[in-house]
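G.,

No rush on this.
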Amino acid sequence: MIEKHSERGGPFVVRTDGSERVRYDYPSFFSYAHRGRLSSYPSMRAECHWHDDWEFLVAEHGHLTYFVDGERVTIREGQGIFVNARRLHYGYSEDGSDCEFLCMLLNQMRAGATKDVLERYLLPIGDTSRPPYLLLDAADGNADVILHMLTTISAANESEMPAAQLTILSCFYAIAQRLTTMMDDADVKRMHISGPLPLTIHAGTAYQERHRTGRIASLTAMVDFIQSNFSRPLTLAEIASAGTVGRSTCASIFRDYLNQSPIEYVTDVRIRKAVELLSGTELPISEVGIRCGLRSPGFFSRTFRSVIGVSPLTYRKQLRNDLSPYRAETRAG
């Protein structure tokens, strides 16, 4: 679960393909850690996105649900999740309850590993054939080590100790070692489960997996298209075309995976961008609306109020008076 700013690194930048460029905790380093709560996000829901980093989240108080590449997993208090690189994901509250969490991004490409270590151990973790996520429960020895390492990294960041970067680096390799073991175990279990099945079941399962993978690929393409073009008028036909599907299939994919219509998702992206601009710039409110694809001031104000609960002007005033619960925390991961 990631907010849009950090004390050391400044704001995150969203690329036009819908991915994030992360500004890490230390210049030229590879980690970002943040504590937050779901209630800081509009509708207690982060924005659907992806990035090249490994993402980890620990539910410290309360629980939440994560969507990862078409699957939903509940993370209970004390548990965590590892989200693999380049997987479409977001976190949200399914029952309206709040959750305080620790979220961390680690970029395996920037950890300074030798070419041999990178190719033999780190890159295979993120291969598209590997699981998109792992649930981290302390009852599992490997997961328990990872959870402990995440806490250690967070403590090193917060203390700003002189050797914090060395601590983070050593924790990263401990995490990578445990992830490798857990991924290998997951592969063995998957082969064991699928091995004895009759050929007809294999064929049916393979078809279902291809169907799901195709829908996720379409969703990713459509999310990227919306992220690149939200500042201009968008039609359902354009969005569907970006995913190379028909309009009805487009609507079905968004409803099944994001619980929103395509146009509702467009509005969600626009309002979250407006929150960023209202909190991070001094742009006139009318200009904020224009940049977010909501060119009519009246329509912008009504739409913003329907999502955030107050008008853009009131929201900006609340920010200045430290009263608004929403502080540009729009993404989960």
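When you get to it, here's the other one too:
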Amino acid sequence: MGSSLSKAMGKIFGNKEMRILMLGLDAAGKTTILYKLKLNQSVTTIPTVGFNVETVQYKNVKFNVWDVGGQDKIRPLWRHYYTGTQGLVFVVDSQDRDRIDEARQELHRIIGDREMRDCLLLVFANKQDLPGAMSPAEVTEKLGLHRMRDRSWFVHPSCATSGEGLYEGLSWLSQNVSSSKS
């Protein structure tokens, strides 16, 4: 009863639920972002082997966020998480110029999969607080995003430890999601 009532209220007041897959190279800040959004505090993390999943409520959207480890040995498993994804949050370590090309290759491999064809793409240009961090414009260029004409995408600067930029990214996702799940 309570479940059907909350679904009905959601339809009346526009509550949405959105499945988010958060990917990126290892040490980009994915888990730190997840728990900053969930707990509003910076947590000490260890490399994610497997995944973390949390629900984050922001405005009228319930984001079901899947944070999957980014080590190269785990990346072939990413495709098992694609089904039903409405938004891909790809996290980039903006200071890691040595691996931005590797990040570009992985991103294009992900979005090239037919299961990910219709999902929104939010890129967090993370670690903006560090010296020498690439700007969002530079991250956009290095990831080759301007060549993507068939998908909605957005690059936003972020700092996972302070939370800067994270909610703006969620706002973009919530404003651009086309269908709500009932």
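The two ends are 15 Å apart (CA to CA). The CA atoms of residues 22 and 89 lie 5 Å apart.

Enjoy the weekend,
O.
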